[in-house]
């Protein structure tokens, strides 16, 4: 198989080449969806000299089929449900609520681990470049979009290496711009489009955030 993407860092460099108009722009903030989106967002932020931070959301995976999302949650009580998955699999309210509670615990853990005492960045009136390592159903990125829209940004731009065309079409109706390097009609799994799709660790996230130029840390 010929992989379209070498790894997350190289994908970030490719995406940055489509975003050069935002280089050194005041009022533009790069936000990554941890963990996989962080190496990509790091490359974008470094190359464009933009501040970098995190937008914490959690996928709600179907038990025994964790890669299949029936929804996602974000901070500030945001929840997105993929109704077609719920109906097709006849998922119960009790099961969905149990998964949501478990994922909220993990979201809060990551918030403490990655951000510490630093609050969620002020996105009001700013242009947000929202980054992930790929989009399958769109539930997770939609939760991130809703989380951000509650804070009234000036614009939201999604930058991802790979996503199905129908999902990109849906997202274009929700945000101001979608940049996607590859739009396969049969995605199957995001990992199949990378030569190296090693799991991004908590330690890598912390290291990348710590290594960002101090002048580019969001406030």
TrEMBL record:
SUPFAM superfamilies registered for this protein in UniProt: PRTase-like
InterPro entries: PRTase-like, PRTase_dom
Residues annotated as domain Phosphoribosyltransferase: 13-180
Protein name: Phosphoribosyltransferase domain-containing protein
